[in-house]
Structures are given as structure tokens and as C-alpha cells.
Amino acid sequence: MGTDTQGKLYLCPTPIGNLGDITARTLEVLRTADLIAAEDTRNTLRLLNHFDLHVPLTSYHEHNKFEKASELVDNMLKGKVIACVTDAGTPGISDPGEILVRKAVEAGIEVTSLPGATAFVTALTVSGFSTERFVFEGFLPREKKARREILDFISKEMRTIILYEAPHHLKGTLSELREVLGGSRRIALCRELTKLHEEILRLSMQDACDHYKDRDPRGEYVLVIEGMSREEIAAAKQREFKDMSISEHVAMYEGQGFDRKEAMKRTAADRGMAKRDVYNALLL
Length: 284
Description:
This protein is an alpha/beta fold and 284 residues long. It folds into three domains: 8-117, Tetrapyrrole methylase, N-terminal domain (Cobalt-precorrin-4 Transmethylase, domain 1); 120-228, Tetrapyrrole methylase, C-terminal domain (Methyltransferase, Cobalt-precorrin-4 Transmethylase, Domain 2), CATH 3.30.950; 232-283, no CATH class. It is built from twelve helices and ten strands. It has helices at residues 24-32, 41-50, 65-77, 97-106, 119-127, 144-155, 167-181, 205-211, 230-240, 246-255, 260-271, 275-283; strands spanning 8-11, 35-38, 57-59, 81-85, 110-113, 134-139, 160-165, 186-191, 199-204, 221-225. The relative contact order is 0.11.
């Protein structure tokens, strides 16, 4: 497929479980590419053999993503057409494909992402939670401080939350989520998506922890978590001011430049009270 002109980068989604989910367009691009950059060449070779495709492979993974991306960009600048694949799903989502795309764009190379399988979208649509607004966090950081910052952000999130997690980390992550979000928050645990034994467990966070207390998680997980409700947000806001007297609360807003009437109005809203009750409390 390569020419004397500048090459091109194709992001080619591969099945997340069911081989029948690969598209005809993806197969055609893989068949005609000059080179396939694969996260795991052994895994990709099995896929190519299944579809009787014979294209050169090169390894492109987390540990060589920067130097190898530069090498691949040089090839594309010389006219090569490169297809990038991950182990499963769409390249660039929680994998090193992101770096290759960035470097290709910086070099002025055309990048095309083909439609296809994506684990987090599949999980979101079967979760039963709101799909109107959601946030994808991928894998939580392993470093404690960064992890804590993300969990704190998630604790205030109203949108549906989507996470990826490996089986050997699942129990610990569920325990942390229960601590941050509470045991009653609902979660959908999605594993083996698109495969014969696909499993979606829709539980409370507490029940999810209990479910895996005496079970060993298997397979890669997509966790879909219901966002914080408006009622929960209001209750949390009220708890912020539980150690502050009403007069101190009003004084806080006055110190921010609001007049007394507006300060009382905001205090009432924060505490879920009638403005009249705030006024009466100030008279005491």
C-alpha cells in the first residue's frame, strides 16, 4: 500500500472477545498495510492467522512507545502505511497508541481511526445507568497520591463513571471505592464482554465487595459506577457546614463581599433551610 508520497496511520480496532466483531474495513486495512504495529505480536499473529492475513508485524508497547513511535513516524514520512492494533479494542484508549497518534499528528501525518469494538462503550450501554453524560477514567493510578486525587474527584462526580481494572487488583479497588462512594452506590461489573460467558453483575458497592470476598476475580473488568445523585450532593454540602454555626456561615459569605440578604439566602440554600429560619436563628 505504500507509495513515494507520505504514508498514513490507521488505528484498527480488534475484537474484545468475539472474533466475529471485527469489521470488513478493518480486515481490508490490515491486509493491505505495509506494517502492523502491535501491542503484543504473538496475540496479533493469532488474529492474523485466523483471518489468513500475512503482513509484517512490529512490536509497539508500553516499554518502547516513545522511541518506537519515532521510528514508525519516520517510516510513514517515507510513504509507509502503518496499521496500529492493541491487544483488544480500539488503539489509543488506555494503551500506547495515544503516543503514536500524537507524534504522527505533530509530523503532519494523516491519521484515521476505524470504527469498531471498544470495551468501555460496550460496558456503559449494558450497565443500566445513564449514558447521557459519563466520564472515562481508564485504569486508576497505582501511585498512592495520584490515586487518592482521582478517587477524591470521583467522589463528587455526578456523571456515570467508567473504570478499567485487572483481576488481581479488583478486590482492593472495590474496597477503596466503597470507602469513598459508600456501600449503597450502585456498580455494574462487566467481564468477558462479547464472549460466550459474558457476565454483568449489577450490585451495590457493598454487595460487590461481599461477592468477591471468597471468590477470585478472573478476566479483565470494566467497572461502571452510577454518578452521585443531586440528593447526595445536597446532603454532602450540608455536612460540610455541620460544624459551623449559622451566624458563622452568614459571616463567611459577608466576608466574601455579599450583602446580608444574599448571605442569608446562600446560607439557607447550603443548609437546606428556609431563609426565614436563618433569620430567626440570627436573632437568638
